[in-house]
Design a protein that fits this description.
Blueprint: H1 6-13, E1 34-36, E2 41-42, E3 45-49, E4 62-64, E5 70-71, E6 73-74, E7 79-80, E8 99-103, E9 106-107, E10 118-121, E11 128-130, H2 132-138, H3 157-178, H4 195-208, H5 221-241, H6 254-270, H7 279-290, H8 297-309, H9 311-317, E12 354-361, E13 365-373, E14 378-387, E15 397-410, E16 413-419, E17 424-433, E18 436-439, E19 446-456, H10 463-469
Parallel strand pairs: 1-11
Antiparallel strand pairs: 1-5, 2-9, 3-4, 3-8, 6-7, 8-10, 12-13, 12-19, 13-14, 14-15, 15-16, 16-17, 17-18, 18-19
């Protein structure tokens, strides 16, 4: 099982089912209208973190962002979700001072999974933008307004660059530290991940230097080292309070202090109005760079030069059918930009009234999902899952019937919203070729293979039917 996202999905599955319109029993209240930005985050969970533990608890209400990153009201489509049957995008506004948290989801432009939480300190009214900039502000111990910019317009490339630099840098630090402080996301008394710890540490460094959020533009190796060290100190303090064993720190944490300033400079070079026509590809390149924090400085510098000067990489990744996987962990001098463009085999056919059989198998688990895409956006799924390391895992099943909804996001992506009985979990299915897919069934996108591709079929009606089919 994957550690970072899955605990959150399990938490959702244990929630008491409720209609968001009835979240405040018997009390009329306005809906929260918001957008989640990194840039726009689709299928992200937005919740009111009442106890501010940066964890979705069973008593905390939540909603999912729509295809454009909105909850409550989408000004692009002019849909008010709290006045429709699509109430999964509706969250009643909490009282002033409540912390609003965004977790998971995918950025609409680059298609990348969001691996760190964002937050906003709700002031009681008005439309809000939950972004890396609002997260830095809400993490402030002094709760001062300062000169924090707000990513209110996705056309402002200075703000977009600043937001990407903040979130991608801090997410990289958080993910590296998560791998060491593994109780985050597993211990019920700790947050889902370390992103809040990192943002709080960064805020302290900023306050000490009497700067604002633009501090990240000139951050040095020493600045990043201070953020990393302070994050580690705060994590160790929380471990000691809970009586947990302090882990040994790996030596490769040092790579963060040298590579992140290079990542910041690279984003500066890439996210400009001159590159507006390839901005989707640019954001994918930024994501690939942020996930390569173990690269030595020399190689990272070389990669930075390549992505700055070789526009064809970003042009390729801006195509309707593209995939950044060849850039991950590779020497980019060997990457042919044409390899980043998927063939027409990746394009989805008309899936309505058809089913897809996909499977994944490795040394830890075997999983089979038979997905029936019914008319009107309804979904039925027969699922088989076996944890080969833990035969007593509660998620093990030889055939379970699940129901939910589906919608097509673009030419090769489907959003599948599955109801696990006490809450729905959105998952994304990406077609890479005729028989190859990426699917985040257990919390992280992995490669699945298909045996049957969108053949006509009647959907099953019971778990017994699923057991027979699988």
């Amino acid at each position: 099982m994957k550690k970072l996202i899955l605990p959150l999905t399990i938490a959702i599955a244990t929630l008491t089912a409720c209609d968001p319109k009835e979240q405040d029993t018997g009390i009329e209240a306005p809906a929260l209208e918001a957008i989640a930005l990194d840039p726009e985050l689709t299928s992200a969970i937005v919740y009111a973190d009442i106890n501010e533990n940066y964890k979705l608890d069973s008593f905390e209400k939540r909603a999912f962002t729509d295809a454009d990153g909105y909850i409550g009201y989408n000004p692009k489509t002019q849909v008010n979700y709290c006045d429709t049957d699509d109430s999964q995008h509706c969250l009643l506004a909490p009282k002033a001072g409540t912390l609003i948290v965004v977790a998971g989801g995918y950025d609409k432009r680059g298609g990348n999974k969001n691996k760190a939480q964002l937050s906003y300190r709700f002031e009681g009214e008005g439309f809000i933008s939950i972004s890396p900039l609002s997260t830095l502000k809400s993490a402030s111990d002094q709760n001062t307004s300062n000169n924090f910019l707000d990513l209110a317009s996705d056309a402002d490339y200075n703000q977009l660059s600043l937001a990407l630099k903040i979130h991608k840098s801090f997410s990289a630090i958080s993910e590296k530290l998560n791998a060491t402080f593994t109780e985050y996301g597993n211990n019920p008394d700790l947050p889902t991940d370390m992103s809040h710890v990192v943002y709080s540490a960064a805020d302290f460094v900023i306050q000490e230097s009497s700067a604002d959020s633009s501090f990240i533009n000139t951050a040095t190796d020493e600045d990043i080292q201070m953020i990393v060290n302070l994050s580690i100190q705060r994590a160790i303090t929380e471990y000691k309070i809970l009586g947990l064993a302090i882990p040994n720190l790996p030596s490769n944490l040092n790579s963060l202090t040298t590579n992140i300033p290079v990542l910041i400079k690279t984003i500066d070079d890439l996210v400009t109005t001159d590159n507006a026509d390839v901005i989707d590809g640019t954001i994918k390149v930024v994501q690939a760079l942020s996930e390569n924090t173990d690269l030595d400085t020399e190689l990272f510098q070389k990669n930075s030069e390549i992505v700055t000067t070789r526009r064809e990489i970003r042009t390729a990744l801006s195509q309707e059918l593209s995939d950044l996987s060849p850039l991950k962990g590779s020497d980019w001098t060997l990457v042919n930009p044409t390899s980043l463009v998927l063939s027409d085999e990746a394009r989805l056919p008309d899936v309505e009234g058809r089913f897809l059989n996909i499977n994944e198998s490795d040394s830890k688990k075997t999983a089979v999902a038979q997905l029936y895409f019914s008319h009107g956006g309804t979904l039925k799924a027969c699922v088989s899952y076996q944890d080969l390391k833990d035969p007593d895992n509660s998620l093990n099943t030889e055939g379970t019937l699940l129901e939910g909804k589906w919608k097509q996001l673009d030419a090769n992506k489907l959003l599948i919203d599955v109801d696990f009985g006490a809450g729905s979990i959105p998952m994304r299915l990406v077609r890479l070729s005729e028989n190859s897919y990426k699917f985040d069934f257990d919390g992280e996108e992995t490669k699945w293979e298909s045996e049957v591709n969108f053949e006509p079929a009647n959907a099953p009606h019971s778990g017994n039917e699923c057991h027979t089919l699988l």
